[in-house]
């Protein structure tokens, strides 16, 4: 099998989409959820830079991380094609010039998606049941006993890396519709937020997940047609708020927040450039905040 190579994009402000073809596995989901949207955008953690799992794109081999491979398997429908935007596939990660040009587009990509799917990973150790439990709690269908059963597994689910990654803030912070997925279980962002509010989280865990939970809660208040509306906070304020969130590349501590800021996206000095050394990026940020 030949290796897939990204064809050049035909012009500026354009991106790629993937068609996730139907699975031949009759056990795959068949509820048709993938056919309701023009396209869906995936929010997930790479977890590792090791691309060890093989998929086929246009009949050619392409390697992805284990976590992304798992997500695609669960997202695959056995009746309908799904159209997805996935950063690791739709952006040529080996082409820094393309990456620099595509990163500023990601805000609109997530804002205009019919749905943003949050992938929390495999449902090992009962974590998928924890998501079901959160949905039950949101619907007030729980008993004191069931609350105790769900609490421990829910706390473990909420400690997954996704909740502390810097990029996910923009991905759900501009979304018009969010669903949360762990293994085969998928619930709405609203049910997830309602369940969390009734779960009784310890203060340490509450402080860790509250930034992203707050942004998920804001989904229902965002006008669906005004996808280019900018945030109300400056890039300096956002950096201060989210300085404890993690990033594999230091540059992303800045670039991941530009789409949420009121000022950063318009600054020429802060336009993504992964060729610049980190200390130069940091100096540009300081000059922007303290001119």
What is shown here, in short?
The chain has helices spanning 66-75, 87-90, 96-102, 106-112, 127-138, 144-157, 167-173, 189-199, 203-217, 235-241, 252-255, 278-289, and strands at 18-20, 40-43, 53-57, 60-64, 82-85, 115-119, 178-182, 185-188. The strands form 2 sheets. It has a 6-stranded mixed β-sheet with strand order 1-5-2-6-7-8, with helices on both faces.
What is this structure's SSE topology?
Blueprint: E1 18-20, E2 40-43, E3 53-57, E4 60-64, H1 66-75, E5 82-85, H2 87-90, H3 96-102, H4 106-112, E6 115-119, H5 127-138, H6 144-157, H7 167-173, E7 178-182, E8 185-188, H8 189-199, H9 203-217, H10 235-241, H11 252-255, H12 278-289
Parallel strand pairs: 2-5, 2-6, 6-7
Antiparallel strand pairs: 1-5, 3-4, 7-8
